Amino acid sequence: MIGSRLGSALGAAVILLSAPIALAAQPAAKPPPVNPEVVDLVFKGVEVMEQADIKKSIATDASHCVSVVLTPVCWISKAKYFYRRKYLDREEFERDPLRIRVFYWKRGYRDATVDTLVTPKGADKVAVTFLVKEGTPTLVSDLNVRQKDTVLSEQEVAGRVVLGENSPLNLLRLDSSVVFLQQSLWEKGYADAVLDTTVVVDTAAKRATVEVTIDPKWKATIADIIVEGNQKTSTRTIMKSLTIHPGDVFRRSEMLRSQRALYESALFRRAAIEIPKQGDSSKVIIVTVQESPRKAVRLSAGFNTVDFVQVEGRYTHNNFFGSARQLDIQGGVGNLLARSLNGRFVFRDATETLGSDRGRYFAPTYNASANLRQPWFRGQANELSLSLFTHRRSAPGIYVDRGFGTSATFTREVIERTPVSANYRVEISKVDAGDVYFCVNYGVCDRPTLDALRDRQRFSPFTLTGSIDRANDPFAPNRGYRGTVGVEHASGFTLSDFRYNRASADAAAYYQIRNRGALAAHLRLGWVKALGSTARALGADTEEDILHPGKRFYAGGSQSVRGYGENQLGPRVLTVPASTLRRGDSTCTENIAITVCNPNAPALANRDFEPRPLGGNIVAEASAELRFPVWRALLGAVFVDAGYVSQRIDAELPRSKAAVTPGFGVRYRSPVGPIRVDIGINPGLPETLPVVSEEFVDGERRLVTLQKSREFTGFRSGLRGLLDRMTLHLSIGEAF
Q: Half-sphere exposure (CA, 13 Å, Cβ side) for 291?
């Protein structure tokens, strides 16, 4: 019998160095090349272990393509951008058999032997073979966990020990068991617990007895907390951020939570929590901070072809009147120089659709908000946020939207990374728009209702949201899961004119594949129903449900079903200008009602019609995505997205739409997150959609629906049609 304490890998190497190492001699007629290229690497005799894991433990490697995806390219070219050449380092190669034996020894196969074979493969090229005899493993015959004082239950011990009886003597699993047991002790307050392991091996019988001894010592408590380094932030504010307090049982997980809370406050560029003295049941905690700037100002300016020139500004104060209170004021002005730039350079000419409303649509747009956030509101886990906002938005010839309001949000972190929020928001808005806008976006097209919707309305829902995040990375996760569930209610009780009930759920899970790859899955569900009292509250003379377009569900886009453009999957209608319709249908003259015009006239092309999403009451989405490394910071992805949207707002409009779209893409891991380029492929069939247009009656625009519908695809024929089916998305961050 041989008695030994569990050692490190160095101890394993020392034991193996004392044994003879069998290396097959390779006599050669002439000296081989000093550093030939290794074109093939083979392991023979490997059965119980993964060859990929053994490869990681040795220095020798074979030349290979940098990614499986680029394998066809590597057949044609061996350029360094696609193909990585590996050469034989003879000194390291002589050590590789020992590395493999240590690999097996740590996992319980203490009699494993390794021979090598080097075979020439042409000029300056060789194939390397490792001949492995795994041998019989040393099995754990008895495993005991002994506690000097019982602080862990049998169930807790069994759940933390990952080395089992009658299994190979895997020292890695034994080390992991010790770590897991130590963590359980820390969570119970035994910060000074000592764990010892003893392994007794019968080399002849190839059996081992393992004993883990736990001495919990004493339960540690926090005697005092000392704060150092703060100058402008009061000690009281810092103490409020901590989840640990004098007199509490000492738990290391709470120290980590406290440290994260200090960083998330944006008050400190550095925060450290340390214990200067060990081996005492009373712990003195020292919190050392380095403060960051309290105020920040950011200004930006830009332009686009729709909103002309915009300027934005933001002011942040991270300790407004103390207590880590954060004030955030931001605002922006757009539509600047609209009169001068309209129709010039890259800017479109909107005057054709404006008529006498030119001044109104060319007036500046704006948005402004002020948000006051109070972290640690009556408790470290609570946060209170209050905000004020106002805006003026417009789209030339379509709508002008003015509004202002306020909101209040209370958030409590129920358990770590699992917050629950309650929000109440009041917004008073007025929308001036043409009939098409209200019919398409609100689902109401009759004259009395349209007039009611143009009045000032109050929109004030109450929302309850809960989320959980167990993903390992906020931007590019490859392990864990995250999810969000929300319910929303608006009625006369909440003082809202738009009244409805709404529920939604969103979840994603990630499974790691090797080092950098991942298999990700995503599910999204939603339901919303307008209340019957909405029409009465709005003063609309209709029995139809009226549901605000912002509360309907839409699908399609870079974070949804990627074979479609933004919000384009679901029930839709086609809109077309009256002038275009009459010009395309030669039989539809000015003295004929536009409703009898033929939207399928040969002179009319799909590009003459604009598909408008209606949104729906029900949405269901599911996605699966495989992410894999390609080269350095570049990753590839293949995915399949599926979605379904159904509306029950207007029985005369399309009811539902479903689609499945595959696709592929690349991601570049930048400092600001993954820069993502995705191409979704839309295999959709033609749709028969209603056609909506406008005509002038007594100087006013009136909405009309054509008697005939149009078969619409949006895809051309031939190669152009194939390209039309590919939807390009460029964004920052993963789709889910």
A: 17
Q: Which of 400, 329, 415, 312 is nearest to 363 (CA)?
A: 400
Residue length of the chain: 736
Across residues 379-395, what is the average pLDDT?
90
Closest CA to 432 of 399, 388, 477: 399
pLDDT at res. 23: 41
Rounded to the nearest angstrom, the gap between the alpha carbon of residue 412 and the centroid of all alpha carbons in its chain is: 22
82-107 pLDDT, tens per residue? 888 999 999 999 999 999 999 999 99
- Within 593-655, strands assigned E span 610-613, 618-631, 634-646
- Looking at residues 11-39, what average pLDDT do you find? 54
- Residue 1 confidence (pLDDT): 37
Predicted confidence band at 732 (pLDDT cuts at 50, 70, 90)?
confident
Give the torsion through C-alpha atoms of 597, 598, 601, 605, to 10 deg.
90
Closest CA to 174 of 187, 193, 192, 161: 161
Domain spanning 221-291: CATH superfamily: membrane protein fhac (3.10.20.310)
Q: What is the pLDDT of residue 440?
A: 66
Instruction: Tell me what pLDDT residue 398 has.
Output: 65
Q: Give the torsion through C-alpha atoms of 550, 551, 554, 557, to 10 deg.
A: 50
**Which CATH code for domain 2-133?**
3.10.20.310
Distance CA 335, CA 663 (A): 37
> Cα separation of 525 and 504, whole Å?
6
Neighbours of 264 (CB within 10 A): 12
Structure tokens, 115: 């021979």
Mean pLDDT in residue range 476-482: 92
Q: Cα Rg for the chain, rounded, in angstroms?
A: 34
Query: Residue 549: exposed, middle, or buried by beta-carbon count in 10 A (0-12, 13-18, 19+)?
Result: middle
This prediction's pTM: 0.75
Averaged over 481-493, what is the pLDDT? Answer: 96
Q: What is the largest CA-CA distance in the chain?
A: 109
Cβ 185 vs Cβ 193: under 8 Å: yes
How many C-beta atoms surround the C-beta of residue 517 within 10 A?
A: 17
> Tokens 């529920």 correspond to what residue?
503
Please state whether beta strands 139-147 and 207-215 pair in parallel, antiparallel, or not at all (unpaired): parallel
Q: pLDDT tens-digit profile of 546-568?
A: 888 888 899 999 999 999 988 88
Average pLDDT over residues 54-58: 92
Q: Which two tokens mark 536?
A: 């009465």
Structure tokens at 239: 């103490």
What is the b/e burial string over 52-74, where b = at least 16 CB atoms within 10 angstroms of the residue's CB?
eebeeebebbbbbbbbebbeebb
636: closest CA among 611, 608, 607, 669? 669
Average pLDDT, the chain: 86
Assigned superfamily of 139-215: membrane protein fhac (3.10.20.310)
Other Cβ atoms closer than 10 A to 557 = 19
Domain ranges in the chain with CATH number 3.10.20.310: 2-133, 139-215, 221-291
The pLDDT confidence band at residue 591, using thresholds 50, 70 and 90, is confident
